[in-house]
DNA sequence: GGGAAACGGAGCGAACCTATCCACTTCTAG
DNA sequence: CTAGAAGTGGATAGGTTCGCTCCGTTTCCC
């Protein structure tokens, strides 16, 4: 695969510096970074960044494979929890926790446009596992039956919004919002009115997540 | 107050056109409109817009007094409903409904920065009434006791986020999200775990709403 | 009819981004 | 140690988007 000859030692060092700087930068300010930003952060000339990563998308993709891995690990970890509701909550909370500490990841999951293709790949890797978590919670009767997998991205959107706005005030306020929302998702003894509208279709949710934002 | 001499007829006509166009534009695309945008929409030269409204903020303020009135009317209306929980829900839903049809209003309420001062004034006019609605719901035992008035702006934030992202897919998806969230806010028979963290203070919420976003 | 008031929109400067280019530095094979 | 290949940095060209001004022209009103 990697047919090209190895980089010179200094070049390789710079490559790593760029990757590291870009990584930190994306976590701090989000997906919206220019070659110039990266160069400044890496203490390297713009030219160097362009030479090594002519396509910014490729660089970003590289950064995110690893991030998605972290989420996948999270699902696996959640699957180990016996109680299905606890497991589901653990996943949702963990996922949001990751996002809280990584604006780039948040942008990716919430889909602020642009990165569609990346988000789709992530969805394909994570989706099935989440579906399983949801099914378990349904089977155990702990998740209200009229809530579907498709409702979970909505949690992300919602709690992310709180995270975004409240980050600098109380970085943990989103936990409160999440707890309240999850209580709404939880099955309860007393009867409840049916939810308005139909459960969103997977296609719709996908569109929401990759919103072109016009 | 209005000591200046009246405008020439054509000038007055243009002033109205500008105001009308700006109003429609704000409803459609939000607070983030330039003098140029307004001029184009009003079919008027940029210069004219600048001459009449040198300070964009003043123009926008003018547009929003009327919008806030609509919300105040909504609270009053909700107060008439006998069942405290229904009343509260009616207000929250109505408020979000207004926002769904008016992006500018949404921006104002969600506080995307900038318009701080405007949002504060709005809060001062609406806040007390909402507090009353919440107190009624508490007294009747229909609102979970550990949810405070301060938690309601969070609903706005959360559901607005869904609205924003899903508008073009299913303009009513937010209703589903809202229903789920409100179910989380509602008091239930079975015991529940206490919410994590403290109820946010009013000061905190104010800060959240007027987030400088940096 | 004439002078004051208002108009329109070309266009200026600032900010910011992408991308290139080439004189200079650093590496490494021999 | 050295020559020349590989790599570097950052000034700069060129594009876009804004906010705003300025002034030749039009419109109003006495």
UniProtKB/TrEMBL annotation, chains A, B:
Residues 34-53 bind DNA. Residues 12-71 form the HTH tetR-type domain. Pfam families: TetR_C_43, TetR_N. GO terms for molecular function: DNA-binding transcription factor activity; transcription cis-regulatory region binding. Coiled coil: none annotated. Residues 191-214 are annotated as: Disordered. Keywords: DNA-binding, Transcription, Transcription regulation. It comes from the Bacteria. SUPFAM superfamilies: Homeodomain-like, Tetracyclin repressor-like, C-terminal domain. PANTHER family: HTH-TYPE TRANSCRIPTIONAL REGULATOR BETI, HTH-TYPE TRANSCRIPTIONAL REGULATOR RUTR. This is AcrR family transcriptional regulator. The lineage of its organism: Bacteria, Bacillati, Actinomycetota, Actinomycetes, Pseudonocardiales.
